[in-house]
Amino acid sequence: MAKLTLYHAAPSRSSIIRWMLEEIGEPYEVQLLSLSKGDNRAPDYLAVNPMGKVPALRHGDAVITEAAAICAYLADEFPRARLNVPIGDPRRGPYLKWLFFGPSCIEPAMADRAFPRKEEARRAALGYGDFDTVINVMANAVARGPYILGEQFTAADVVIGSTLRFGMLFKLLPERPEFTTYTGRLAQRPALQRAETKDKELAAA
User: Fold this and answer.
1) Is the pTM for the entire model greater than 0.85?
2) Residue 205 clears pLDDT 80, i.e. is over it
3) Crossing angle between the packed helical segments 155-169 and 92-101, to the nearest 10 degrees
């Protein structure tokens, strides 16, 4: 089996993939990068990801970047972990929607709230619409529980859960009861606990 290597900085968005890798249960290696030292802008890493960002994942000859895409790839590549919804299942569409709702709606909504424009953009000009709608849609979705698609935990929960946890930690999202209940449930997952412990050890070192 081809080796999995995560290009990682702790803590960062690549912690999403650390959690995902712990969930799939396959062996992987970590190539640690220091963002403060500019490792992500070094020529060797730009050859891996020209965007100069983490995460990046190498699997054999394949290199995948962007956190949601990596989660989708891993879920499909290792179906035994049951973190995907296979093609042909009617839940596949909602699964993909939520996988990409995090980076395409929640993240830009948070960023615009944190770094407001001099003039407010027209709602139609923003891919996510407006902050309050994003928050309400997300709250209604996770309130149905226990997971974003109901009983099955999927890669979409890794992406959405990570985004909500980050947003509330840095006060970029409101601590709505729907969010705290959902992320509290995710915090009990052994894979997330392992990922957090490993990242804390890296940060301490």
Assistant:
1) yes
2) no
3) 30
